[in-house]
Amino acid sequence: MSVPQVPTGETLLQLPLADVRESKTNPRTSFDKAALEDLAASIRAQGVVQPILVRPRSGTTTVAAGWEIVAGARRYRAAKAAQLATIPAVVRELTDAQVLEIQIVENLQREDVHPMDEARGYAYLIGQTGKDVAAVAAEVGKSVSYIYQRLKLTSLVPKVEKAFLDGTLSAGHAVLIARLTATDQQAALEHCDNRWDRQPGVRDLARWITQQCHLVLAGAPFHPDDAQLLPKAGPCVACPKRTGHTPALYPDIKQDTCTDRVCYQAKAQAMIQRTIEAAKADGKPLYEASTKYRLEPAETKRGVLARNAWDSQRTTCPHSLAVVFIDGEQRGKTGKVCTKPDACKVHNPRVTSPARNARGLSLGKAHKRKTEAARLTWTRTLDAVLLKVKKPGPVEQRATLTAFVSSLGWDTAQELGKRHGWKPTNSGLNRFDGPARSAIAKMDARALARLEVELAVLMGASHRHEISPEFQAIARRYKINTGAIARRALAEVKKKT
Question: What proportions of the chain, in percent to the nearest 5, are helix, strand and coil?
Fold first, then answer.
């Protein structure tokens, strides 16, 4: 008897499960047991609704040789668990390369695929098929930007990758970190781990990366097109570490920035050296200026100006020097500074105008008086209110409820402790213990009412010694003249000073 042949093209057949085998190249190797059991129960009741995809096994077209699963291994396993004899299958003649591509794409389109597995799948697909990112994006139904960002996940250093796989980092965090150099990836991971209160959100991490790791090329002290400044690095225009090189990978970054701080700083240093050498060649003295107050021995030896030895020159003065900045935001750029800011009549107001200095001292003294008077006013108003407190009313209750929105902070605890002779602890959960607990336990109704109002006032103030609107309302309830107290406090302070 002749062996039946498979028709060319594509055919739907009911195949014996015994003749079907799983593919050795299937990227999916793990299956959720509970989900598999649920699918098996569904198949027992309704059968296999969606056929699997197979090809003739061992490169033959005979049914006797059996069949290799291209897509549908999970349905196949569930059908075996449901003890079916046959399974519906679409038969298609495919090459090994075609099988691999279908398997990768099919697994990439699963809802439960991990972004890291997704990234490796896209990378493998591009490497095996030779397709570009745009072609892969069209095939899997994703945007080009999405594919680029997923592919970048394969650049994660081991520690960051482990944190991502463990669930410590979200996909959003991982993508942002993957776009950094290996050194900056470690720094970003430490930034996420060192937050004691909570992990920074994706926006917070993006802001930190922008501030700490990205350098805007428009503000660089060197020209991005300069290929001779650092020959090994080449021009920035052709560098793949520039965000403008692959805009689809950095859709959130509008300015063209450098993501390799080491290379950027090396170019800035080369620019500094070039500027110094050019000044020497022209016979124009050019000094180095640092924003650091404590210099390294090597910097001191070559005569670098520390930050306490110069001031930014706003106008021409006799003490000005031409400098090139070796660090800080102005690194690599040239300018002029005043080298004697304390004695310069142009840049020091005290030297320029004694009268102006006297006015400044007078204003400072007046401000100090005002602050001290405000403190006395605040304290005495509170004391005057507490003397009249018998039973808390709606005003106090409202103030208390408003104040208790936030917890008792350290400053508030210190103020309360100072007023009662209680020593606060460093614990945020229990600021007071021992004597404070005993004192509160012995308080009568009126004393407790006073403490309630006191807490409301202390916790309700936006900053210390401020008479808040709630505090003012309480004072009015007890007919306390805060204006008169303020005037007396100011007069008392003036008399002392």
Answer: 55, 10, 35
β-partners of residue 382 are none
321 is in which domain, residue-wise? 285-350
Say if pTM beats, i.e. exceeds, 0.90. no
Residue 241 lies inside a defined structural domain of this protein: no
Instruction: Quote the tokens at residue 16.
Output: 């014996």
Structural domain ending residue among the three candidates 105, 126, 155: 105
Dihedral of CA atoms 89, 91, 96, 97 in degrees, nearest 10, equals -90
Query: Does residue 380 share a domain with residue 344?
Result: no
Amino acid making up residue 79: A
CB 165 within 8 Å of CB 262? no
Q: How many domains does the chain have?
A: 3
324, 332 contact by CB (below 8 A): yes
Residue 271 inside a domain? The answer is: no
DSSP secondary structure letters along 124-185: HHHHHH---HHHHHHHHT--HHHHHHHHHGGG--HHHHHHHHTTSS-HHHHHHHHTS-HHHH
Look at residue 149 and tell me if it is in a domain: no
In which residue are the tokens 């498979």 written?
Answer: 6
Tens-of-pLDDT digits for all 497 residues of the chain? 333 444 445 778 899 999 999 888 776 666 778 888 999 999 998 899 899 999 987 654 444 468 999 988 889 999 999 999 999 999 988 888 788 788 777 777 676 778 888 888 888 888 877 889 998 888 888 899 999 999 999 999 999 999 998 888 899 999 999 999 999 999 999 888 865 556 788 888 999 998 888 988 888 888 989 999 999 889 998 899 999 999 999 998 988 999 998 999 899 889 988 988 888 888 888 899 998 888 888 888 888 999 888 887 767 788 888 899 988 888 888 888 888 877 777 777 665 555 655 666 676 778 788 888 888 888 888 888 888 887 766 566 445 433 443 356 667 777 777 877 777 666 555 556 666 667 766 777 677 677 778 777 777 665 557 777 778 888 888 888 888 888 888 888 888 87
Claim to verify: residue 328 and residue 431 sit in the same structural domain: no
Look up residue 288 and give its DSSP letter: E
